[in-house]
């Protein structure tokens, strides 16, 4: 018998990685047999029966594609489905965007928003002069750190969430961005900030634009919730469009997971917009060529199905109008749940202030609950949420919002006795 060959990948060389906290939370929820368990962890829309919702307009687009005799499964171009990427650019930048008219934008279809952030990070790591640091909000989407770390871009944070007001720490945010070295990369959530649900006002966005311009910072917008936040596509894209109108060179990671319910189809776009210089078209041509090389070496060609669904809807006026109705329905249900939760907590006279539940926007709410309280909710009420106190408002419905409110009331009162 031959001697066993020792592995080259020992525990010292390849340590066991920790389980992803969010997906571990999902697994624990699924394994829990309790009939009143509540899932407030995963960032995916659920209807009032706590079920995944396939948008009616997506069902129509799906039927159109299935009945198309010309449909095939050939490769898409490296940059993706052109009818999709061009419509996606118009959606985020505006159909009348001067940047589009002046041909100083380029768009690449990506593996949803995660792929778009990664492609942008990879491009900046490779080509942005000076090897700058990227600054994230504190807190931010957990994957931001990992993505930029993986491509070797140094990371830092700027204050964002105020624990005392449960709103925006705008003073701290501005100071950190002002103190950052010139030409830093500033990652900004375009709307429905994840995980806090706290967004700057339009006047605050204007102040940030002045500050970023003075420091020659590079804005990197992450837009995962356009139309899903307020139900208004233009309103949710306002910050991006304003920065473009001010002549910024910037990039955008755009996801269609939430606003189309295409979570598993991984439909996204990365957009780069250069400033209105005389050689802007040449600049964007060079950038486009390098993005194609990066895409080719990583995924070669993006997946077709989700892009075709979105393209069918985005390019058909009647379907687009129906999609807007679907968006208003989703955003409206979440707003209704925010009002219901706040109302029930105030009715119970739960210690503390709960106006932040309705002040915040989008899929997530930063409740202000401590890690100890979050664990207590899981132990005694079978409520599953991330340990930082973030809840997915889409996980609440008319059948469980009172149960959740009473559970919160109980753990908050118990915590005050400690």
UniProtKB/TrEMBL annotation:
Cofactor(s) it depends on: pyridoxal 5'-phosphate
Record-level GO BP terms: aspartate biosynthetic process
Alphabetized GO MF terms: L-aspartate:2-oxoglutarate aminotransferase activity; pyridoxal phosphate binding
Enzyme Commission no: 2.6.1.1
Superkingdom: Eukaryota
Keyword rRNA-binding tagged: no
Catalytic reaction annotation: L-aspartate + 2-oxoglutarate = oxaloacetate + L-glutamate
Ranges of residues in domain Aminotransferase class I/classII large: 36-407
Database matches in InterPro entries: Aminotransferase_I/II_large (IPR004839), Asp_trans (IPR000796), NHTrfase_class1_PyrdxlP-BS (IPR004838), PyrdxlP-dep_Trfase (IPR015424), PyrdxlP-dep_Trfase_major (IPR015421), PyrdxlP-dep_Trfase_small (IPR015422)
Residue intervals passing through the bilayer: none
Enzyme class label: transferase
An example Gene Ontology CC term for this record: cytosol
Further remarks about this protein from its record: In eukaryotes there are cytoplasmic, mitochondrial and chloroplastic isozymes.
Family affiliation: Belongs to the class-I pyridoxal-phosphate-dependent aminotransferase family.
Assembly and binders: Homodimer.
Protein name: Aspartate aminotransferase
Species in which this protein is naturally found: Coleophoma cylindrospora
């Amino acid at each position: 018998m031959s001697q066993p060959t020792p592995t080259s990948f020992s525990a010292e060389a390849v340590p066991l990685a920790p389980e992803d906290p969010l997906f571990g939370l999902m697994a624990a929820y699924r394994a829990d047999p309790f009939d009143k368990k509540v899932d407030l962890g995963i960032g995916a829309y659920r209807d009032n029966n706590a079920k995944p919702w396939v948008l009616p307009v997506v069902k129509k687009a799906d039927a159109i594609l299935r009945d198309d005799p010309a449909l095939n499964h050939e490769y898409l171009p490296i940059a993706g489905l052109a009818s999709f990427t061009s419509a996606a650019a118009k959606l985020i930048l505006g159909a009348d965007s001067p940047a589009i008219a002046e041909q100083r934008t380029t768009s690449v279809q990506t593996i949803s928003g995660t792929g778009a952030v990664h492609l942008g990070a990879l491009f900046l790591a490779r080509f942005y002069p000076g090897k700058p640091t990227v600054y994230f909000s504190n807190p931010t989407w957990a994957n931001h750190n990992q993505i930029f770390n993986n491509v070797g871009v140094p990371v830092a944070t700027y204050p964002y969430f105020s624990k005392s007001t449960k709103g925006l720490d705008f003073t701290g945010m501005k100071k950190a961005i002002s103190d950052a070295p010139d030409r830093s990369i500033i990652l900004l959530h375009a709307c429905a900030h994840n995980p806090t649900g706290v967004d700057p006002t339009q006047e605050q966005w204007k102040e940030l634009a002045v500050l970023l311009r003075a420091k020659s910072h590079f804005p990197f917008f992450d837009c995962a919730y356009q139309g899903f936040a307020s139900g208004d596509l233009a309103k949710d894209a306002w910050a991006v469009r304003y920065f473009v109108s001010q002549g910024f060179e910037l990039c955008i990671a755009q996801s269609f997971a939430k606003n189309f319910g295409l979570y598993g189809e991984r439909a996204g776009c990365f957009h780069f917009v250069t400033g209105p210089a005389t050689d802007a078209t040449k600049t964007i041509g060079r950038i486009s060529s390098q993005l194609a090389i990066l895409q080719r070496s990583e995924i070669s060609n993006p997946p077709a199905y989700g892009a075709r669904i979105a393209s069918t809807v985005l390019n058909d006026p009647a379907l687009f109008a129906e999609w807007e109705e679907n968006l208003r329905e989703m955003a409206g249900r979440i707003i209704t749940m925010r009002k219901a939760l706040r109302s029930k907590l105030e009715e119970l006279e739960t210690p503390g202030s709960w106006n932040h539940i309705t002040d915040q926007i989008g899929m997530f709410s930063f409740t202000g609950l401590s890690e100890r309280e979050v664990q207590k909710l899981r132990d005694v009420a079978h409520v599953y949420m991330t340990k930082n106190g973030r809840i997915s408002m889409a996980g609440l419905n008319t059948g469980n919002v009172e149960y959740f409110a009473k559970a919160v009331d109980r753990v908050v009162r118990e915590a005050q006795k400690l």
